[in-house]
């Protein structure tokens, strides 16, 4: 929760120097780029007769921090387990997901159209289980990398005729890293070549020892193709869920994670959300990652419109102002105004962070970037006063020989450096050389904003000397 003096000044529509003076008056010595804490910001705002809105103070903290109501143990009820299926390619993940879904669609839902929304829920003897239906650990880890923990149980599919393969091991490591319990589905048991003992043997080497052999890992022989053993597998999921004591409070505002999202031509932003706590309702003001809106419509995994969705339920929603990312968190807010203000400021901060992340090439950091192997070409734009000088500069630059990096002239022209030169440079990570020309006012502003390195010269050999020293790491830092 902080702002620099300059940023605060901008929000207050004042000159930064004025704010610095104001700060001085209240006993805070600060420079323009200094970060101010919340109290100081409030003090200054008060002085200007401005009320500090939450908007100003929102930072990019996890959305969860807006979901900090205290847990009331009495309201917690059991929630369905969320299960991910992982395993080596062709071992039967997709077939298993399909066959579970087919066998367990409840009678009343039979007429519904199966809809791919990224997850589905089944009813197993009155107990629900949610399956994420993007198999594989890539999706799992992408979500985890974004801070989302959605999976309660992993089903590791291992083909009995093939045994432990590289992606089996990867999947084990991903599940272990996430500390998610693993159930082994020994698949393709219908095959002649099925050898479940070998699977058990091989998994022992990865710390997964079957109960039959004195360990605590559940192994279930199945045939995803003909449905054998699926009931047993679901029963085991139920058992593990009980041990895990999965609970949630359906009376709270909802929170959870984006399973997938896309832009739909007709409906706009469409996102599948997994409700992890609370109950999500149509009309709820919501912040989803860096997007916000109101839940306009909700559709469940069989394509039915629903009005609410409780814990562990996947639903597809519309009504967001933009498309969030898989793994983004969502939180429902009391009122739309707060949701909007938090959503907007998150989007803005994300944009700024994104800009900050990209290190633009400059002659000062060129050598560093070369050393890190990030630079193969030094892209250059040359502007000059006459055609002859532009050509001469470009030709001399191309003659520079430094190991590991090439000069690449991406644009040359006669005339002052313009905003469009800067835009091109920014998009191509290039530097701009002005020979006997200067940037115009717009270009100057753009170069500052986009952090494009613009070098002005009057003598050719100075241009070459500067670029050469930058490439060899001998450039004196410029202040
Ligand atoms: P994934 O890559 O792990 O999703 O594997 P798939 O579900 O696409 O299955 C790969 C192949 O194995 C397909 O041709 C399936 O029909 C077949 N398969 C899957 N499960 C079984 C099974 O239990 N028995 C037999 N015989 N074949 C299976």
What this model shows, in words?
- With 479 residues, the chain is α/β, with parallel strands linked by helices.
- The protein is 34% helix and 25% strand.
- The chain is built from 15 helices and 23 strands.
- The protein has helices at residues 5-12, 16-25, 38-47, 54-57, 93-104, 137-145, 166-177, 196-204, 230-244, 336-357, 366-371, 387-398, 419-428, 441-450, 460-471, and strands at residues 3-4, 35-36, 77-78, 81-87, 119-124, 127-132, 153-159, 182-187, 218-221, 247-248, 255-264, 268-277, 280-281, 285-288, 291-299, 305-306, 308-309, 314-320, 329-332, 377-384, 406-414, 430-435, 454-457.
- Strands 5-6-4-7-8-9 form a six-stranded mixed β-sheet, with helices on both faces.
- The model is unreliable at 55-60 (pLDDT under 50).
- Guanosine-5'-diphosphate (GDP) binds next to α5.
- Belongs to the TRAFAC class translation factor GTPase superfamily. Classic translation factor GTPase family. IF-2 subfamily.
- It is found in: Cytoplasm.
- Its main location: cytoplasm.
- One of its GO terms (cellular component) is cytosol.
- Residues 81-229 are annotated as: G-domain.
